[in-house]
Design a protein that fits this description.
Elements: H1 2-6, H2 9-34, H3 40-58, H4 62-82, H5 88-109, H6 115-122, H7 130-159, H8 161-166, H9 171-189, H10 198-212, H11 216-241, H12 245-277
């Protein structure tokens, strides 16, 4: 069954794209969760609806149309947080509401909801093309280089921005680059899990990893591993049972989070028992 599953070209492309997106979202999600900006994925995914609707209205690629729209929205969030002094969750909420409202309006002008739009809303990983796989690979390579050069600075800025500034770290610039990467990841991920489920792919694996890991590097490894496991399991289950792949990937993610929570609680009880015996 598995050999038959892997023999199809569209499945191979879907799994490759899904794996790349999973790793990208997991890495970015770790930093976003620690910086309490994890809901930015949800906000930008709603803005992504505007880009997709514009693409359908103008009969151009929704992927290419979404990139500038989401980038402008992400930089708008940063500006509101920096210049207008609006809290991060409020800025994300404002942009999210504006993006969703604009997307619904443009969708109505484009002729309403259709099969193509539903594919973007809820994911269609098995329709991923080669250009999208290449885009995911390029983004992961760029993210890897960014981590290579700014790994320590990112850790410092994620745990304590005030301390990072005293060390001369350009926190605002790091935040801007991180959010730009998140914007591009959101655009690439809507084919994998769908616009309405992207935030779960960014939030759930890092949260589960934080329950299991003891060091920061372990958090990154656990987050990537759990994200990959959820994508591969979700796609396989959706293929076998003929169910939506995006929703299945997220449900597997949530199941893994529940397991991580249970393992974490057992670990704490075991440690308390050892201390009691001593």
């Amino acid at each position: 069954m598995i050999s038959e599953f892997l023999s199809y070209g569209f499945v191979q492309r879907g799994l490759l794209a899904g794996s790349l997106v999973a790793v990208i979202c997991a890495i970015l999600g770790v930093f976003l969760v620690l910086k309490r900006l994890s809901l930015i994925g949800d906000g930008l995914s709603h803005v992504c609806l505007s880009g997709v609707a514009l693409g359908l209205l103008t009969q151009t690629s929704p992927l290419y149309m979404s990139v500038p729209v989401v980038l402008v929205a992400s930089l708008g969030i940063l500006k509101m947080m920096d210049k207008v002094k609006i809290y991060g969750d409020a800025a994300i909420g404002i942009v999210s509401a504006a993006g969703l409202a604009a997307g619904i309006l443009i969708t109505a002008l484009a002729g309403g909801f259709n099969a193509d739009l539903f594919g973007f809303l809820f994911g269609s990983i098995l329709t991923v093309g080669r250009s999208e796989v290449l885009g995911c690979a390029v983004l992961l390579a760029a993210l890897g280089l960014f981590l290579l050069f700014y790994y320590r600075d990112l850790i410092a800025a994620s745990f304590d921005e005030a301390f990072a500034r005293t060390r001369g770290i350009a926190v605002k610039r790091l935040n801007a680059v991180l959010i730009v990467f998140t914007s591009l990841a959101v655009v690439l991920a809507f084919k994998v899990v769908g616009i309405f489920l992207i935030s779960a792919l960014i939030i759930v694996p890092p949260v589960a990893a934080l329950l299991l890991a003891r060091t920061f590097k372990q958090v990154l490894c656990w987050a990537c591993g759990l994200a990959l496991l959820s994508v591969w399991s979700g796609v396989y289950l959706s293929f076998v049972f003929n169910i939506p792949s995006g929703a299945t990937i997220i449900l597997v993610n949530l199941l893994l989070l529940a397991v991580a929570f249970g393992v974490s609680r057992l670990g704490r009880r075991y440690k308390k028992g050892e201390k009691h015996v001593d």
